[in-house]
Amino acid sequence: xxxxxxxxxxxxxxxxxxxxxxxxxxxxxxxxxxxxxxxxxxxxxxxxxxxxxxxxxxxxxxxxxxxxxxxxxxxxxxxxxxxxxxxxxxxxxxxxxxxxxxxxxxxxxxxxxxxxxxxxxxxxxxxxxxxxxxxxxxxxxxxxxxxxxxxxxxxxxxxxxxxxxxxxxxxxxxxxxxxxxxxxxxxxxxxxxxxxxxxxxxxxxxxxxxxxxxxxxxxxxxxxxxxxxxxxxxxxxxxxxxxxxxxxxxxxxxxxxxxxxxxxxxxxxxxxxxxxxxxxxxxxxxxxxxxxxxxxxxxxxxxxxxxxxxxxxxxxxxxxxxxxxxxxxxxxxxxxxxxxxxxxxxxxxxxxxxxxxxxxxxxxxxxxxxxxxxxxxxxxxxxxxxxxxxxxxxxxxxxxxxxxxxxxxxxxxxxxxxxxxxxxxxxxxxxxxxxxxxxxxxxxxxxxxxxxxxxxxxxxxxxxxxxxxxxxxxxxxxxxxxxxxxxxxxxxxxxxxxxxxxxxxxxxxxxxxxxxxxxx
Length: 520
Fold this sequence. Notes:
Layout: E1 22-24, H1 30-36, E2 55-57, H2 67-88, H3 99-121, E3 131-132, E4 147-153, E5 160-165, H4 170-174, E6 187-193, E7 213-218, E8 229-235, E9 245-248, E10 250-256, E11 262-268, E12 271-277, E13 288-293, H5 306-334, E14 353-354, E15 371-379, E16 384-391, E17 398-404, E18 420-421, E19 432-438, E20 447-449, E21 455-463, E22 475-482, H6 499-517
Parallel strand pairs: 8-9, 19-20
Antiparallel strand pairs: 1-2, 3-4, 4-12, 5-8, 5-13, 6-7, 6-12, 10-11, 14-15, 15-21, 16-19, 16-22, 17-18, 17-21
């Protein structure tokens, strides 16, 4: 069986343990039973052997499949079983096992699985394409619901060309809002990065600088031709005869240690990540993008071998289990959503409050180059509200307010008003943005729907054209109230949002999400 530490601060990553001779069909391996049922039945659905009904025989060899596939399949099932344990077993620090958390936890597991299957079996540095690394099915990393996340696998020694096309980009140059008509996403960020966060299953990777950004370019820097087209070259070294947009895949980067020392080492990119962030969900349109490795244009991709597929299967199982374990640990010990785990007298995510805006906690990592973050958590009864006032002396180019469940997923942003952008929630008469977090509709602008969850994390993201001095940073205040009394806190001229207007808001969100993910 997989080997996991029971230390309170970390689990060791899942390791391959060879070929299991049998898998018991008890509660902990029900998923394995379901997956193997087709393999243990004849054409008519009758059992293929007279084995004990409580045990599935899984021999180390097969009359059909090569050993590499059998071993990979068993490793995959072990990882799947371990991932399920991380959803239910308290020693893995999952959310409380109520009906909603468990239902979402199992879907969360399947979302990771779908994403990892594609990443492992389809992506290749010689034949790159942009995978939608976060989708409505596969939510993770406490993602920004305003964003479309794309990722392509690359090799540091390859040379890649990205071609893109954007609609109206005047807001990239001016930061004005409300132009109307089809136009580019409010924010576009390209990053070369070293690794996918969470792959090890251990929080130790947070201090080992495993996931770092080597280079980035954003909408403020991208130059386009008169057709809205642009090009980015991605390679280890800029060609001497090329003066266009360039991202490096190899760079020496610093890595600070918990002891205060800093080491430098050469790092190489394995991914090109893209964020397209939408503020006006009515009119902003995704980019057109393509990527190619220049020395592989037109080359056929070799067929898969059984040895290659066996390795993929084992890696899928390990990464599935490790991802769920990692994000559980991060919520428990890194974010302290259940209490003061390091006994320092404070919570990393304050309860019913937000931290002051600051650069992301993953220093130099993949959490969004150039962004400021503010984060906290809340716990509310059905009739409670948390009112948040945000005053920004300098209007951000982009600002968004988001929630996250205790698995690290944003709640459904298509069918609920569970997030707000700067366009969706403009500045009020007192010069601040106001948000009302509650389970039922207070009939005000800036409502953040909890979707019925009593405890969630909350975050704000800010992007500015220039670095701000401390005195011009946004300030955040929070106020506890009953839903019925929130207007006693809000500006007196706060308008009323009718139920019909709220339905229209949700309908606009549903249409945008279909367009964003091209769910035709």
